[in-house]
Amino acid sequence: MEDFLIGKKNGVLINFSKKYCTSSTELLESVDFKKILELYLKKISKKDTDVYKHLSKQFGKKHELTNNLIHFLKLLVVFDLNDAAKYYSECLITKKDLLLAFIEDFYDFWRSFERYAMIVNKHKAAFQQSNFFYALDDFNNLILSTYRKIEETLMLSKNKVYRQLNAGINVGMIVEKINWRVPIEYEELLKIPFIKMVVLQPPFFVYTKQNTRKGMFQEISENPLCGLEFNAGEWLCYPIKIGSLLAFVYFHSDFMAQGITLSNLFELATEAECRERKPDLMVIFGAKDGVATPRCSFYRDRKNDLIIGYLNHNEGIDYFGYMKKMILTVFNLKMIELGNLPIHGAMVNITLKSGKALNVVLMGDSGAGKSESLEAFRILAEEYVKEMKVIFDDMGYLTLRNGKVCGYGTEIGAFVRLDDLSKDYAYKAMERSIFLNPDRINARVVMPISTFEIVNAGYPVDYFLYANNYEDHQELEFFNSQDDAKKIFVAGTRIAKGTTNEVGIVHSYFANPFGPAQMQESTDQLIDKYFSEMFNGNVVLGQIRTRLGIAGFEQEGPLMAAKKLLDLFLGLVVRRGI
Fold it and tell me: Which terminus of the chain has fewer CB atoms gathered within 10 Å of its CB, N or C?
């Protein structure tokens, strides 16, 4: 990694292992500060603002302007305004309002970046793990104190109100190169460092070029990594655990936000879990292959028993949904190979105050109202329910254990659509969340909601319901035959909610275009097997009408569905004494 990097995505990455500032003077003299200042001056010069006109008149232009400004700021840290101005012009004092405007605007410009810092975990690194937390805090305080010192020198007074904003780093990372059991075809990847630890300073706001995902991922017959070279200074690997599988997710630094957002969604694998081990899955996100159009595909390397997800370097895939869904697609393909049935939906373990537990799966494609209905249920049922554990919020799978159909999760977090949730939902989760395009349609928040131990424990399924967002009928309906149930589940009908480029009534095979749709023949056999097991094993199959896709029911629909589900469970309490 370079000392300082500015990617296409309005982000900066500072390598604390190579350079770390401990004083305002060191900060102002650093190469990194100069680069940011040059970017800012370039921006305001294009607009020809009054601030730029004043600065260029007093300090010169281009490189002279940058160097003189840095010198002047250093003087303001040490001297008062009158003494500092003596080096330049008395006009600086008479028009200090423009200098203050410059300081405020430049400070905001710095804070507009996604700000990342990393250390390389090796013996000679400037900051090792034990000191990393202190380094991040100290850097934040250094930025704040330098800004305030300069500002107050210009104002000739102290501030009356101080706001402790995060002016330093949004995300800190400890990275390290790891020797894993690499097949000879992938030795080029060995030089890419792994993320070992992440320090997140939420709320973290991310803005990407896209805010929806398009199309399905297709299988290709040739290995997309053949002949590709990777610049280790531009790449990182985020190793994750999904169930019993290990996945290495490689991402280009231009897509740093997507890679870091994984920290709120998947369990980070440890160094010991990666070292000398071959992964089951790999995802390459942002490969520079010279192809101008987006490439979103997967390749099954049967020789090395490895499934690879591949997305090339293109603004068309600049959206976290592409990374998340590619990871889940290659995972689901592996699950199908292993005889497990992937489920696109949500599952919760509900423990009533009587102590009886019920496990409910709501299945449906994106925008069906699964998460919204369960969140409404959680709020309504607070008086009657002791605990609700989220097993999965988007993707899970069914398997047989001791003769029972059990559900397992994949993610420890949720990738939640904000538009249809209650207004207080995002605010309650703000202190732990990453917000994606919060001011756009299909705004999302990514937050941790469970633990790896919970999602990977396996829970026997009691209710298996299809989330129907397109019909305005009774909220809860149960199927009397296996064939009737399969027709609804396999058709995967819904009203598109703007989470993809689809519109209107759409259909997706088994409501899951992330693996099952690519392996329909194998999935058909698994559907027959698991639906038969559920009917014979007293699992209740039905559909819950969330009406989320019907205008005017975006919040009322999931709420009414949740009420009906709660009535059902309370009825069970009375009838069965559970």
Answer: C
Q: Which of 421, 422, 423, 449 is nearest to 434 (CA)?
A: 449
The total number of residues written for the chain in this structure: 578
The whole-angstrom separation of Cα 421 and Cα 295 is 33
Non-local (6+) Cβ contacts of 168 within 8 A are: 115, 136, 137, 139, 140, 141, 142, 143, 144, 201
Q: Decide if pLDDT at 534 tops 80.
A: yes
Backbone region of residue 571 per phi and psi (left: phi > 0; alpha: psi in -120 to 50; beta: other values): alpha
What DSSP string runs through 123-135?
Answer: TT-SS-HHHHHHH
Cβ neighbours, 10 Å, residue 3: 15
The torsion angles phi and psi of 217, rounded to 5 degrees, stand at -85, 135
Domains, the chain, in order of start with CATH, read: 4-172 (no CATH), 177-337 (3.40.449), 341-412+449-576 (3.90.228.20)
Distance CA 435, CA 454 (A): 25
Residue range 228-276, pLDDT digits in tens: 999 998 999 999 999 999 999 999 999 999 999 999 999 999 999 999 9
Phi, psi of 229 (to 5 degrees): -115, 145
- DSSP annotation of 270 reads P
Residue 577 pLDDT exceeds 50: no
pLDDT score of 550 more than 60: yes
Token readout for 453 is: 């131990």
Helix, strand, or coil here: 541? strand
Structure tokens, 63? 């490189």
3-state DSSP call for residue 406? strand
Which DSSP category does 213 fall into?
B
pLDDT for position 545: 93
Structure-block tokens of residue 554? 């975006």
368 — pLDDT class (breaks 50, 70, 90): confident
Q: At 141, is the secondary structure helix, strand, or coil?
A: helix
**Residue 375 predicted with pLDDT over 60:** yes
Q: How high does pLDDT run on average in the chain?
A: 90
Q: How far is CA 320 from CA 116, 208, 463, 510, in A?
A: 18, 8, 31, 23
**pTM exceeding the 0.85 threshold for the entire prediction:** yes
CA distance 414 to 416: 6
Q: Is the confidence at residue 8, as pLDDT, over 50? A: no
Buried/exposed 479-510: b ≥16 CB within 10 Å, e otherwise: beebeebbebbbebbbbbbebbebeeebebbb
Chain CA centroid to CA 8, Å: 18
- β-strands 404-409, 459-460 pairing: antiparallel
Nearest 5°: the CA angle 23, 25, 28 is 110
